[in-house]
Specification:
The protein is 23% helix and 25% strand. The chain is built from 14 helices and 30 strands. Helix 10 crosses helix 14. The longest helix has 18 residues. The radius of gyration is 24 Å and the shape is globular. The termini are far apart. The N terminus is likely disordered.
Length: 605
């Protein structure tokens, strides 16, 4: 498998780099270094080859189409200071990410850029409205060399993922700009552990090899095996997701047989560091293991043939070493999310053995600061797409009196989660809309905060369509279903047990539904069954209740298997339509919505 893109794409990238560099002070050295006819693998000329060469690996993950700087807490990075205090720093935005990466590449003749999934999907309106074509275009301009798929690359199905790779206009929405056809990704998307059920073959390349002046580094890309549990069933129909360890080991052996001894795995699965500060030292004395979560066991099971792991999915920042099966330390990294950080890893390549000198591997996360210059080509890209989106994006939907935190909330119950659940209940309570008695919202479906003072020209407190879309970008259809009281209690228990025990997924609940979450206990016992009430009355296990939820939850998503047992389903409007209708009906400039108190779940700690 070759990393070299088709000739027309390599030529297109070279022309673009030359054009972009003319307007970038940071890219002057890049232009000077490009020989005539150079491609992405030849950023610097060749010369005398020493025994070892340092290869710079720049990586990031979980961009989620955040081309503009993320708003509110979603756009902040925590930095530990020398005196032990923590400083919050605004970060992210593809204009700044481009400048950061281009600056970082200077002085590094061997530099490769990689990403570990969820680059698209759950995107703000600027990208999501156009099926993430703007993000792929931006990634091309970033000179991304390779990316593994994440679960969100499957939000619109494998056919749409193939279109993002290969280009072409959207099958139903067509081309978004007159006279322009979407060209697809210049970089290969890798999906080693995702196969078609009908053929058993990977839906995209399982691996690729980056080459320059005799240096060869293989990249294997996998997403988490549990992708079917967190993606709409329509998105993964006809696909099979395989074990991450077994898949990486299989293709590492294949690369080794082909003479590729240096290998990096791009794994869309991650962990949680002991500190939320991006510059926390996982390997410092007294830090213990420094990191927990699924990536630990995965890293310990992946063959020593793999020299480094670039990970994602958990939206955390870490640079840690985890021992491989032979007991040797191996670098495992993640760069938070939304383009707020990038990771700079030095891989010392031994030309004689063709392998990485593992003891020389160094890595660090760096903030994508908003204090630096913006990359003009990215500014132009954002301006162009914003102009196309403006008629929809700037439409006011409602008013709020202060920030309403969702993604940025640190408590199990999120103020924005309460607001969304209330909107779903209000929209689906009428008898002709389903007769819902309560509503449940999955926390992962809340992608941002509602910010009172947003950027741009809108007035303070105005919620635009674009902001509402950023909060709920999936356009899930709402369902109203029958569940027994016993099934409701089981669902609450599944929040904190089984696949969700290690990382609970606390459902957001509509007004009138209350219970106690006892975190001093373990597993299903964390739910105090006698405390579960609806409008002050204990839930009757034998009684049937009408429950509103999105189609993702109704299909058993996020480990809520009991929801698949529902009956008497009625399909309603989309979650976004319901939310916007609630904002319009329940707020005005003189009477904005205040942040909910988030007092429906009593937490015992």
């Amino acid at each position: 498998m070759s990393a070299t893109p088709p000739n027309h794409r390599a030529a297109r990238r070279t022309r673009r780099v030359l054009a972009v560099a003319a307007g970038l002070a940071t890219a002057g050295a890049l232009v000077a270094a490009l020989p005539a006819g150079a491609t992405d693998g030849d950023r610097q000329g060749s010369g005398h080859h020493p025994r070892t060469v340092d290869v710079q690996l720049l990586s990031f993950n979980d961009l989620h189409g955040n081309l503009e700087p993320p708003a509110g807490s979603a756009g902040a990075v925590s930095e530990k200071q020398a005196d032990g205090t923590v400083r919050t720093i605004p970060a992210g935005g593809v204009e700044y990410l481009a400048t950061s990466l281009r600056t970082a590449r200077q002085g590094h003749p061997y530099s490769v850029s990689a990403a570990a999934g969820d680059l698209v999907g759950a995107s703000p309106l600027l990208s999501g409205l156009f099926h993430d074509e703007p993000t792929v275009e931006a990634l091309n301009k970033l000179d991304l060399d390779v990316a593994g798929v994440g679960n969100h690359e499957f939000d619109e199905g494998a056919v749409e993922l193939a279109r993002l790779q290969n280009g072409g206009c959207h099958p139903t929405d067509g081309c978004f700009e007159e006279g322009k056809e979407f060209e697809g990704a210049d970089f290969p998307y890798l999906a080693a552990n995702v196969t078609k059920e009908s053929t058993g073959k990977p839906i995209l390349k399982p691996y690729t090899v980056w080459k320059k002046n005799g240096v060869k580094i293989g990249f294997i890309g996998v997403t988490l095996e549990g992708t079917p549990d967190i993606v709409s069933a329509n998105g993964i129909k006809g696909l099979k997701f395989h074990d991450e360890i077994e898949t990486v080991n299989k293709y590492a052996r294949e690369l080794d047989r082909k003479g590729v001894k240096s290998i990096v795995a791009l794994i869309h699965e991650g962990g949680s560091p002991a500190s939320a500060s991006y510059n926390y030292d996982c390997d410092s004395p007294g830090a213990g293991d420094g990191i927990s979560g699924p990536i630990v066991d995965i890293a310990k099971g992946i063959t020593p043939k793999v020299d480094a792991l670039v990970t994602g999915h958990t939206h955390q920042a870490y640079v840690c070493t985890i021992p491989d099966p032979s007991g040797r330390p191996r670098m495992v990294t993640s760069a938070s999310s939304y383009g707020k950080l990038y990771t700079d890893t030095t891989l010392t390549y031994d030309r004689r053995t063709g392998d990485i000198v593992r003891t020389s591997v160094k890595s660090a996360n760096h903030i994508v600061s908003r204090d630096q210059a913006r990359a003009q080509d990215m500014t132009d890209l954002i301006t162009r797409w914003n102009k196309l989106a403006a008629p929809i994006a700037n439409r006011p939907q409602g008013f709020i009196s202060a920030d309403i935190n969702g993604r940025g909330a640190t408590t199990p119950e999120k103020p924005l989660g309460d607001l969304i659940a209330d909107a779903q209940l209000a929209g689906l309570a009428p008898a002709d809309k389903g007769g819902a008695q309560l509503a449940l919202m999955n926390p992962g479906g809340i992608r941002s905060d509602l910010v009172f003072k947003a950027s741009g020209s809108e007035g303070d407190g105005v919620v635009t369509y674009g902001e509402a879309f950023t909060v709920q970008p999936f356009t899930n259809m709402m369902n109203v279903v029958d569940l027994t009281g016993a099934q409701l209690i089981t669902a609450l228990q599944q929040q904190v047990s089984g696949p969700n025990e290690a990382s609970p997924k606390i459902l957001q609940i509509s007004k009138g539904f209350t219970y106690t979450l006892d975190l001093t206990k373990t597993g299903a016992d964390r739910i105090v069954v006698d405390s579960v009430k609806l409008n002050g009355e204990a839930i009757d296990p034998a009684k049937t209740y009408r429950v509103a939820m999105n189609e993702f939850l109704a299909g058993g998503g996020d480990g809520f298997a009991v929801f698949k047992e529902h009956t008497n389903k009625l399909v309603g409007a989309s979650d976004l339509e319901v939310f916007n209708a609630y904002l319009a009906a329940n707020s005005s400039a003189s009477a904005p919505i205040a942040p909910p108190a988030a007092d429906r779940i009593t937490v015992v700690q």
